[in-house]
Amino acid sequence: MSEGGIFETLEVFVYQVLTNTICNALCFLYPAYASYKAIKSNGTADDKQWLTYWVTFGLLHVMEFWFGPVLEYIPLYWLLKSGFVLWLQHPSTKGATTLYYKYVQPFLKNNEARIDQELSQSGRYAATGVAMAANRLSQALGKEQKQKLAETLVTAAINSQVEDSKTK
């Protein structure tokens, strides 16, 4: 690879890291702080704005996960996403509210019973999986190992309580 090729590759890498970092700050840090401020405020309008943002952004984030390999090939993707996220957040555009009421809420309302059923069923599967894993762990450990694990867990719990009482 020529020296120019190395610098071009480095420049693209730095640009991608920088735009990705800025985009993630716009997507997560500012909304998290704005949500904190909304929770502290007496009114509920800002709470609703930020809840609709998080629901809409969460769905966008899931879609981005699924289509990530394709999205990487879109030139200036992080810049475009940053602009879109600003549109979602900005009080004058309230893009998240627009998308929520036009697309997200109707979809969720039409599929609410099925989604609730799937979530309930997945919760049962998760509980069964945890119980099976605990049972296998219990079978795999010898008596001394079980005793040591129990002592470690109790010590950690006690230390956690002590630290909690110190911070209060």
UniProtKB/TrEMBL annotation:
GO cellular component, one term: membrane
Residues annotated as transmembrane: 12-33, 53-80
Subcellular location: Membrane
Coiled coil location: none
Membrane topology of this protein: Multi-pass membrane protein
Keyword annotations: Membrane, Transmembrane, Transmembrane helix
Chief location category: membrane
InterPro entries associated with the record: TB2_DP1_HVA22
Family indicated by similarity: Belongs to the DP1 family.
Full protein name: HVA22-like protein
